[in-house]
Amino acid sequence: MKLRFRPHHRMKSARDFARAYRQGSRARGALLRVVVVPNGLEHTRLGLSVGRSVWRHAVRRNRVRRLFREAFRLERHALPPGIDVVLIPAEKALEPTLERTRRELVGLVGKAWRRYGEKNPAERA
RNA sequence: CGAGAGGACCGGACGGUCGCUCCGCGGGCUUAGCCCACGGGGAGGAAAGUCCGGGCUCCACGGGUCGAGGUGGUUGCUAACGGCAACCGGCCGCGAGGCUAGGGAAAGUGCCACAGAAAACAAACCGCCGCGGGCGGCCUCCGGGCCGGGCGCGGUAAGGGUGAAAAGGUGCGGUAAGAGCGCACCGCGGUCCUGGUGACAGGGCCGGCAGGGCAAACCCCACCUGGAGAAAGACCAAAUAGGGAAGGCCGACGGUUGAUGACCCGCAUCCAGGACCUUCCGGGUAGGUCGUUCGAGGCCGGGCGCGAGUCCGGUCCCAGAGAAAUGACCGUCACCCCUCCUCGGAGGGGGACAGGAUCCGGCUUACAGGUCCUCUCGCGCC
RNA sequence: GGGCGACUAACUCAAUUGGCAGAGUGCCAUGUUCACAGCGUGGAGGUUACUGGUUCAAGUCCAGUGUCGCCCA
């Protein structure tokens, strides 16, 4: 199984993010807030939103982004296909580790995806 | 050895596994593209702050003056600069060196609180000194003499006091007391000479002294500046709506009896018109491509220059992302700290400031640890 | 990426041309009341965001740094 992360695995337009925030279901943990929404594609896509309030310095902010992306890359096949996943840091001044982020990512996406099914029973079929 | 001054530089190294991106070459497929394999490139000295200057792009543009903003020793360097170099002056340091917005206050305006007599036209509070008349006290050889405080007129700027600042400083002479009043040295102003491209420096002569500070207050002088900024700008260009042109179709109702077929009705053709169809054209949104990395470029050698730099030759291609890559997890070895001890090992911990977004030249700010060179002062030894 | 602004007592704001940093609310003490509120009296509280410079003197002028906020799209 290839653990690739290609450009088409990334949410690229403001419309994608707006749809996720408007229609998606959310879940929150110690490290992550996640938003999930179906995207009508066969694969799962990732969106990152790491703002300036998390860390003032770009190096620290990039560290958070890169760890989130790495966790998504490694766990992509454990997630439901055909959804958009937006990851947002849960706290300011976050210093995540890869192991914790991977565990929390899988758990929270599953939780949010179940919530989406309860909210939209028709689409689930 | 200790204490310091200046400058240059580094910013862990190597390897493994899984990934990202660009370029080259080859291959495959369902061929605007996607995928695979191989080789190569992939953050910084500040990439940062955005404080200056330029390249580049678009807009505006006849010239001059005024205004506004900026800069401010001189000479150079540079594409340019508020940068840099060398030099000059001032201040600080025993010194190596450091700091320096450092033009003009005899163009004008303004400000100088409090204190103080007085804060800029100069003047005189306490003083000091002289003269005048009067008062009191003491002495007396009865002529007067001495002392005291007060008043009036005048001299003075030494002393006191205030202040950040009060009409050069020190010394000697001089005087009723004083004062550049006179003299010497220092300072200052003018003028001439010499040296220097120059800022300035040195010297001669003359003048007894002109005159406060603030221009990062207004201002004057000299010089500089058109505006916007890559989200600049150029090109390609869906879907939908709308605009224009041509053709088709309709022209049944409706068209001052629309025109023609002499006239009327019908009919035909044509015209106007049309909410329909096709094709084309231009504008233009989403989206895409370019701008976009070969450049005031790096390295090496040589020439010129004290230097900043510059010229010549050789050589190299050295990040180009785009919801935005340069990452994640390990191992080994160096470096630093702590603990243990069989003094050489074992165990544990640590490594700063910080991430390109159009590109350069500077400035400023942040920074663990470390390397090298030159110089100064002190102590000791030879 | 580019262009601007603000920062003064615990809070909200003043401070002329540079000349002793103030006001209201709040806080503390005290009086009044059986008690509380209110009112009266007195008082404390400041590195003027920070670091330098100009000046005799800086909250004010100049430069740099930090934090917060706004605008362009």
Summarize the structure.
This protein has 125 residues and is an alpha+beta fold. Helix content is 43%, strand content 18%. The structure holds 2 RNA strands.
Annotated CATH architecture:
2-Layer Sandwich
Radius of gyration: 14 Å
Strand content: 15-25%
CATH T-level fold name: Ribosomal Protein S5, domain 2
Structural class, by secondary structure, is alpha+beta
Instruction: Please provide the count of β strands.
Output: 4
Helix-strand layout with pairing:
Elements: H1 14-23, E1 25-28, E2 32-38, E3 45-48, H2 58-75, E4 83-89, H3 98-119, H4 121-124
Parallel strand pairs: 3-4
Antiparallel strand pairs: 1-2, 2-4
Helix pairs in contact: 2-3
This protein binds 2 RNA strands through residues 3-7, 10-14, 16-17, 47-49, 57-63, 66-67, 69-71, 73-74, 98.
Describe the structure.
- The chain is of the alpha+beta class.
- The chain has one domain: Ribosomal Protein S5, domain 2.
- It has 4 helices and 4 strands.
- The protein has a 4-stranded mixed sheet, sandwiched between helices.
- Strand 3, helix 2 (58-75) and strand 4 (83-89) form a beta-alpha-beta unit.
- Helix 2 (58-75) crosses helix 3.
- The longest helix has 22 residues, at 98-119.
- The mean pLDDT is 86.
- The structure holds 2 RNA strands.
